[in-house]
TrEMBL record, chains A, B:
Its job: Catalyzes the NADPH-dependent reduction of L-glutamate 5-phosphate into L-glutamate 5-semialdehyde and phosphate. The product spontaneously undergoes cyclization to form 1-pyrroline-5-carboxylate.
EC id: 1.2.1.41
Cell location: Cytoplasm
Protein name as catalogued: Gamma-glutamyl phosphate reductase
Family: Belongs to the gamma-glutamyl phosphate reductase family.
Gene3D superfamilies to which the protein is assigned, alphabetical: Aldehyde Dehydrogenase, Chain A, domain 1 (3.40.605.10), Aldehyde Dehydrogenase, Chain A, domain 2 (3.40.309.10)
Native source species: Chitinivorax tropicus
Pfam families: Aldedh
A single GO cellular-component term on record: cytoplasm
Gene name, Swiss-Prot/TrEMBL: proA
């Protein structure tokens, strides 16, 4: 009951702050962002000391190396947090943008105005830099934010939150525009995701387990990212040089990102022309290959020995690691069918020079990003020109793919008249 | 368990049909819509006979007059169902629309393509015409539909569904593109709103109770309409003639619609110039007035006697009836504050000739439709040029206000390249 009261109080304050923020002009919001950046740079040593205490405690508690890595702040990451805030200040303000104004036969002039969503709840794990990034995006889009970071990062988050508050106050914006949940009690999350009166949308960031749990229990809309099981399909009308370049880059540019290719599909008619060369590239880079029967045969004949067999489970797996499943398919229809059946509707690419096949792939692949002759690695907010991203959505409602400032807004209808009435 | 199996089977069939529909070209979808319209006209007597059985049973069960009215089909309503289908066939196809294609510095060309959502579940009460309307909109937007109408209308809905299936078959589209849930067991709704693998969005249509229950229990995104507590604010810089015309029309054009004004706000500086005349119009038309203290005093002095006092509850009430609450406010800020506190974020209008106040009202009123010098009654799909509407959303996520074909689609990102890779 105490936690419930505490969270309700945070919710009420956020709702009040959201109204003030929705009115705040661009200059004021940018001033706050720049003041927060300054405070973070000035308080660098305080932030690093708080973070050291978090890291020491996490080490005692036996956190694994990857988590410790994400938790740890350095002088460099503090500087890039401040830099991120300044970049968001430089982005155009999405709020108030008016579009599609047209006269209707009744004489009214109808259009749309972009407006903040209201209050955004962000739930994340051990990364303290999310505190600054998420605060910046929510603020710029005119939303109040309630931030609930992992308990491992509580001291770091409090220290960053103090800088955020200072910046808000300097700009004359309400302190409650960005609130950090100060308790590590898990019940706080349960409250946050069910306070419909006070929270307009939840953005969970973290592992699939966290996101599934939240979206199961939430009573507030959730913008979520689940798997990134991305495919490249090399069509038999592909340009071989482009195919190899893209299939190499999509897998090996970075292994741990959600837009990395996890399954390579190759048309039977071109398999022998591309797979042996790609096989050499992948094995040179230490990528483990898991192959369908046809691929195993082809690669064995090409001198690779018997590669590992892909199981049904492999087609559904996001490795996030130097592992790749490969399947030879009869052609475009089979490739689309594989992608729509096993994929995660994240990002999928075709390599082809054939106009009609490119068109069919674009139309029929039901994913947030669908590409022709480009690496799946392009699917992110920076490459898409969103400036920054709050996450990548694998939902279909509201926002698909990389979510930037626009995804944190909605559009209302506006009507301008001269006294028109319905008759 | 039987109901669960039955609904899962419907869900699986819908998912398969949705894939076929997403590929279906515009001509095929229009052919199906026109064939359904023909079938409905041809089977008019069968439809009316089925409906008579529903109405007779409803009468026996003591359904109230308003519900009976909504349940009853006539030759005229059957004809307008067919006409509605033909109108939807005439609307432009939203699917495949490509927009905002621009080159990025990396050389990729990035844009958006409008695509179907997938499977839409519609849950509605006694109106059988929703079966045809909803089927038409879902089909045109490339979505499969699962329709669950009220048990009172089950025979009418089955008869309409038979016409829909015939039209789909004639066009060579899968019958499962539109499925009517054939059981009146309430557990079917519970399944429908939690089948995340098979349903992409739920649109409940009906009373507030139904919609709240569904949105509380749903595990699938819901596009919902709750209250329509709409306001007109007459500013002291209003043109008096426009103010009276709009305040009259917004209340008295129709009483039972969600975009009807329920509370009239009047700036203190203009109250004595508009309220007595409006009071005469409203009382002549039989509208009951519930007033704040200042309004009561003013109206008493103007010869109306002591009008009924508005309670706190009145400001939060959607009357859907010839009742109006009236409040005199100090000015624009107080009006906006009242609307954002007591309103339902549906549709609100200001009457003013003042440029800056109009701008402030447009920016600060957080409703799906915000109007200047126009009647709130304009907030509907037909007047907004959407051609038809599946409902009016009071949500902020995905779709706000009248929801037409676009609200039943989403946009995916598309990327066209010439072999670009990330470096």
């Amino acid at each position: 009951m105490e936690i419930k009261d505490y969270m309700q109080q945070i919710g009420r304050s956020a709702r009040t702050a959201a109204r003030a923020l929705a009115k705040a002009d661009t200059h004021l919001k940018n001033q706050a962002l720049l003041a927060i950046a300054d405070a973070i740079e000035r308080e660098r040593d305080v932030l690093l000391a708080a973070n050291e205490r978090d890291v020491a405690r996490a080490r005692e508690n036996g956190l694994d190396a990857a988590l410790l890595d994400r938790l740890t702040l350095t002088a460099k990451t503090v500087a890039s947090m401040a830099e991120g805030l300044r970049q968001v200040a430089n982005l155009p303000d999405p709020v108030g943008e008016i579009s599609e104004m047209n006269y209707r036969p009744s004489g009214i002039q109808l259009g749309k105005m972009r407006v903040p969503l209201g209050v955004i709840g962000i739930i994340y794990e051990a990364r303290p830099n999310v505190t600054a990034d998420a605060a910046a995006l929510c603020l710029k889009a005119g939303n109040a934010a309630i931030l609930r970071g992992g308990s491992e990062a509580i001291e770091s988050n409090r220290a960053i939150a103090a800088c955020v508050r200072e910046g808000l106050m300097q700009a004359g914006l309400p302190e409650a525009a960005v609130q950090v949940v100060e308790t590590t009690d898990r019940a706080a999350v349960g409250e946050l995701i069910t306070m419909r009166d006070y929270v307009d949308v939840i953005v969970p960031r973290g592992g699939k387990g966290l996101i599934e749990r939240i979206s199961n229990e939430a009573r507030v809309p959730v913008i979520k990212h689940l798997d990134g099981i991305c495919h490249v399909y090399i069509d038999d009308k592909a340009d071989i040089e482009k195919a190899i370049r893209i299939a190499d880059n999509a897998k090996t540019h970075r292994y741990g990102t959600c837009n990395t290719m996890e399954t390579l599909l190759v048309a039977a008619g071109i398999a022998s022309q591309v797979l042996p060369e790609l096989g050499r590239i992948y094995t040179d880079k230490g990528v483990e290959l898991r192959c369908c029967a046809a691929t195993r045969n082809l690669m064995q004949q090409a001198g690779f020995g018997w590669l590992k067999e892909a199981t049904e489970e492999d087609w559904r797996t996001e490795y996030l690691a130097p592992v790749l499943s490969i399947r030879i398919v009869s052609g475009l229809d089979a490739a689309i069918d594989h992608i729509n059946s096993y994929g995660s509707q994240h990002t999928d690419a075709i390599v082809t020079e054939d106009y009609s096949r490119a068109r069919q792939f674009l139309r029929e692949v039901d994913s947030a990003s669908v590409m022709v002759n480009a690496s799946t690695r392009f699917a992110d907010g920076f490459e898409y020109g969103l400036g920054a991203e709050i996450g990548i959505s694998t939902d279909k409602i509201h926002a698909r793919g990389p979510v930037g400032l626009h995804g944190l807004t909605s559009q209302k209808w506006i009507v301008l008249g001269d006294g028109q009435v319905r008759t």
